[in-house]
Amino acid sequence: MMTLENKENTMSRSGFARRMRQHENTPILLVLIVMIVVVVIVEFFLKGRVNFLSGMNISNVLLQVSVTGIFALGMTMVMISGGIDLSIGNMLSFLGTGMAYLMKTAKWGETETILIALVVGIGLQLLMGLIISRTKIEPFIISLGFMSIYRGFTYLITNGREITIIGKLEFLQAVVFRINKFVVTVPIVLFIVLTIIVALVIKYTKFGRRVYAVGGNENAAYLAGINVKNFKLLIYGINGLFVTIASMTLLARLGTGAPVMGFGKEIEVIAAVVVGGTAMSGGKGNVWGAVFGVLVLGIISNALNILGVSPHYQFIISGLLIIFAVVVGYYSGLRTVKRSVKKA
Amino acid sequence: MPAEVTSEKEGAEKMAPEQELILEMKGIRKSFPGVDVFTGFDFDLRKGEVHCICGENGAGKSTLIKILSGAHTPDGGEIKIYGKKVDNLTPRTAMKMGIQTIYQEHALYPLLPVFENLFAGNELGRGPIVSRSAMVEKSREVLKCLNSDISPYEIVGNLGSGEQKTVEIARAFIQESKIMILDEPTASFSQKETDHLLGLIKVLSREGISIIYISHHLDEVFKIADRVTVIRDGQKINTYEIADLTEQQLIKDMVGRDVSAFYQRECCTIGDVMYEAIDVSGKGVTHASLMVRSGEILGIAGMVGSGRTELAELLFGVQPMDTGTIRIRGKKVNIRTPLDAIVNKMCFITEDRQSSGLFLIHSIVKNAVIASYAKSKMPFARPSDDVKLAQKYVKAMNVVTPSVEQKVVFLSGGNQQKVVLAKWFATMGDIFIFDEPTRGIDVGAKEEIYKIMTGLLKDGKCIIMISSDMPELIAMSDRIMVMREGKMVAEVSRKDEICEENILNYSIGGGV
């Protein structure tokens, strides 16, 4: 058994390197770095040049991941608190096509459309949160039900057709600054700013600390004075906010409200969040991990495109890489556990 | 007559050469993160004997059982079964060798009839086709052999606690058990059920089955044991032939140094009435009233299921109260949720720290600060302050851990309990409800918890303490109230001679 002085000694000696080794985001960060290095080397040997690290490609990747990233922020909070939301992909289609319908067919203005989208998006998530928090039914199945409902409404709105909007929501496409071909647009800035806000909220507010408590042990959280039911409700409401923002952003980028625009998005987002170290069982995870997870997934598909891999192989390879990333995380987690057991 | 240690094989043979040893354990070592349970433990078992194991909570009895049943692998030492050395005992191989363990909680299928339970996993019949009639027939036979009149068709869930235990024993019997381990089988039994079970054990030992029997009830031990082994802090203190053993000797061996069982608490100045609950009713509790003064411990005694925990949950707002008034320092307060309770400076150390007290996958820091968040309306948290707060309590309570960032799941039971206490101390509460504060905690840590509780009293706080550990309750409480069937049936204060017999009488409602 260590004495107290001893403990403090080892603590101060440990320093940065050791803290990094034990940090929960280290595995995913390593995967990210290794992947970038591998892609650069492979591309260099195959093609003799490195387009992957060009300014244009980097801003391209960032733009592509920003929508998934904004989704992932909400999903991370939902999942840390012990929930899950399968409805977000179809909700994206519903909100996207709905907004397109309002602006194109009903000729609503941008501001009214955005406001009503926020009200509807947050409201529907609150409704789902109400059912999930007031019953003991698994959020998995409730959100699955909502998923199907959104899909149905999407088809009712669009009748299966795409709704093209021209000259709408252009502020969400605006260029913030550019350095040669490295272009930073509003979605990227939005993603970064929202990430920082969420990270700060999680770290420096009671609300943020309580997300972990609710996901870690609901019972104990209730006894520690947390109104668990309302807390979950709030989390889904916040998730609604992020879903709506992400939907607007994607609609602006595509310029078209397509029924299929969000299909499969929930799986992509959940995969990114879990690859980033958030536990499906709740109580564990963090926003930066999720951001790395989103980047890893985004870079996989981008790199495979650049390397000219056939889309059919892309699915197989990205599946294998996801499994690889999670397995790496699992084993490094085990190692940390063993080490701390030994210390105790 | 000298009580001879018979841990050595030669010793056993010298004393009873005709006795065949069925099981030997030598130099067993086992440790868990933070605690060494066994450091060289010896044990042996003769054919057809009833061998009782006595020891306090946390002495290592359950670890011993788990090693024998293959659930835990010892870190070192030797296990011989029928004289053959056995490595790598797993639950499967243990059962194959005829070691059957009957745990305190029932391990039956409550929705299935008795005969299905008896043959679950070992169905009679030919090939994949089971024969219900053969199983029913055999069930009848076995139950008759065990002097039981339970019908093979009865649904197990409808049986009483004692009958369910009989079914479990019958199941072990059918599977040709050679060694049967019974872990506190009579914990929630009536006297009649206990007598029946003890009779059953005699039958089994006559059939040549060796029995390891673990019980807190010393009278049972003296009724059925052939030999008794006393364990304390993972050490074998002695093995006695029952004829050589007196109750005084047994208690002395179990308790050893005079901690826990006869813990001497400092007296504190008792002040004004701090907390009153008047006529509280709700789930499992009817019209219970109590009062505690500052600097005082009110003990609550009663059998398992008498409504003690339910009462605590009502007081803390976990469950809604149907009727009842709560006064804190004379002022009426409304407590409908745990949040209300915390705001009114109440703290609730629950019975099951793992399921309702701790966030096991989180660090000590996260655990320690979470309840204190309920105290203020400010929305912000400062991680550096949180760490300082956690460090303060880790130091004050002497939690053994490499750092405050350690995940709570890796701490020992005693240290986990200290983290629960830290969580509540951080709320700066005044009224503490302790539900089984030292359950599953080793002896040394128990004493520390008692000291911490005494410290609270010195600061003018008050404590309501629920405990099934009678010596603990008697040593710590200033007054004891007894619950039975959801009602407060008696109050005994120190002068009225708080003693075990008295309290037991009230809690079982006996007129003895």
CATH topology of chain A: ABC transporter involved in vitamin B12 uptake, BtuC
**CA-CA gap between termini of chain A:** 7 Å
Q: What class do helices, strands and sheet pairing of chain A give?
A: mainly alpha
Would you identify the CATH architecture of the domain at 1-98 and 178-253 in chain B?
3-Layer(aba) Sandwich
Arithmetic mean pLDDT of chain A: 89
Structural class of chain B: alpha/beta
CATH architecture annotation of chain A = Orthogonal Bundle
Largest interface: A-B, 35 and 43 residues
Q: Biggest β-sheet of chain A: count, sense, barrel?
A: 2 strands, antiparallel
Give helix % range of chain A. Answer: over 70%
Count the beta strands of chain A: 4
Shape descriptor of chain B: globular
Estimated helix fraction of chain B? 25-40%
Distance between the amino and carboxyl termini of chain B: 34 Å
Give the helices and strands, then pairings.
The complex is a heterodimer of chains A (344) and B (512).
Chain A lengths: L3 H19 L3 H22 L7 H26 L7 H17 L5 H25 L4 H20 L4 E2 L10 E5 L2 E4 H19 L1 H11 L1 H6 L4 H27 L1 E2 L7 H11 L11 H20 L4 H33 L1
Antiparallel strand pairs in A: 1-4, 2-3
Helix pairs in contact in A: 2-12, 3-7, 3-10, 3-11, 3-12, 4-5, 4-6, 4-10, 5-10, 7-8, 11-12, 12-13
Chain B lengths: L8 H7 L5 E12 L2 E12 L3 E5 L6 H8 L7 E6 L2 E3 L4 H6 L2 E4 L11 H6 L5 E2 L2 E2 L1 H14 L15 H14 L4 E5 L7 H16 L3 E5 L3 H7 L2 E6 L2 E7 L5 H9 L17 E10 L2 E9 L3 E5 L6 H8 L5 E8 L2 E3 L4 H6 L2 E4 L3 H5 L6 H6 L13 H14 L16 H13 L5 E5 L7 H16 L3 E5 L3 H7 L2 E6 L2 E7 L6 H9 L4
Parallel strand pairs in B: 3-10, 3-11, 6-9, 9-10, 15-20, 15-21, 18-19, 19-20
Antiparallel strand pairs in B: 1-2, 1-4, 4-5, 7-8, 11-12, 13-14, 13-16, 16-17, 21-22
Helix pairs in contact in B: 6-7
TL;DR?
The complex is a heterodimer of chains A (344) and B (512). With 344 residues, chain A is mainly alpha-helical. Chain A has 13 helices and four strands.
